[in-house]
Amino acid sequence: MENNDIYELCELFGVQGEIVGVSILSSGHINSTFKVDVDENGIMKSYIVQKVNDYVFKKPEELMENIISVTDFIEKKKGSGKTLKFLKTSDGKGVTNIDGEYFRIYEFVQNTETYDITENPKIIYETGLAFGEFQQLLSDYPASTLYETIPNFHNTINRFENFETAVENNFSGRAESVAQTIVDYLTIKDTAVKMTQMSQAGVLPQRVTHNDTKCNNVLFDTNTKKHTCVIDLDTVMPGLAGFDFGDAIRFIANTATEDEKDLSKVMLDLGKFEAFTKGFLDGCGESLTKEEIETLSLGAITITIECGVRFLTDYIDGDRYFKINYPEHNLDRALCQLKLAQDMIAKQDEMQTIVQKCLTKKELQ
Ligand code: ADP
Ligand code: GN1
Ligand code: MG
Known about the structure:
By secondary structure, the chain is of the alpha+beta class. It contains twelve helices and ten strands.
């Protein structure tokens, strides 16, 4: 992205003052993120300028309508500073198009930090609390009024259909070399589709969900180490609470990183699982149903399998969706999710016992 584009965007979104610094913040696999420092008559302010990936998000305007509506709703309940603050153009839009590319600007939250990985149980608890509170705050928001920013995002039946189509088409020619991994994923398909079937049967309710609950999507106050706000709201849409829980566990309770090559290092850490679960349940308050609580551990298994299937699909499709740092990156991610999912399946009863233990502790408080 050119500096000229940044100047033009700041003008379009009404940013006052002189731009004194631009830096790249890049941790995610989808969008491109920049921090822009501005001197507003001696007062320093910073903004995030983000290019929305329109290969992934086909309707950026609808996506921004969702985000603005949800952040306004949270701000009314919790006050400013507890959610992201997006700027609007003079015609009231939250996203603009320059040369066919979509951009938005929002306020940078000062004195905050994010964690890509953490061993600290307090931070893990706080991350659970942040996503649980997010769930609870939006429990009276009418989920059906939100656009589906990526249709069928956590429809695991559909994800497996896309996977099987990718294997058939084999655009990259890589399918033969990963034949065993394909079989391994198909072996656990029945487990992975259970919650989607329960959702379709109306057993699990549709909630407003975040759908990308990695720990680096929570901002922490640098001094107090308490969570300040949940970020990366592109995938906020109707979904299952157990999938938000599950995606967080996939990321935060793995003993290794998402793309660890040495699979002997990849396992579910039950201590981290407990810390997150406690925070999540505390944050959710009374908002979850019995069926939602009973399927939390299945949510973790489901999303880990689904995420792995998505990485493997992309590898076989020729790496069109996720950003990669080297040619086998998506395969490494897929193998790592497979190992983690297998370990979760072996530990499912232990996970559910921990969920019950956290609930009992909550009742005693
Ligand atoms: P991605 O899609 O790349 O994950 P994010 O919206 O999560 O994009 O932003 C990437 C990183 O930028 C975050 O993990 C966080 O460290 C930082 N960041 C994003 N928004 C803010 C903000 N409003 N204030 C401070 N830091 C932010
Ligand atoms: C993507 O943007 P980022 O990196 O936080 C992806 C998630 C995956 C995640 C895997 C819109 O999230 O669904 O779980 O990568 N986001 C989208 O790391 O597809
Ligand atoms: Mg992110």
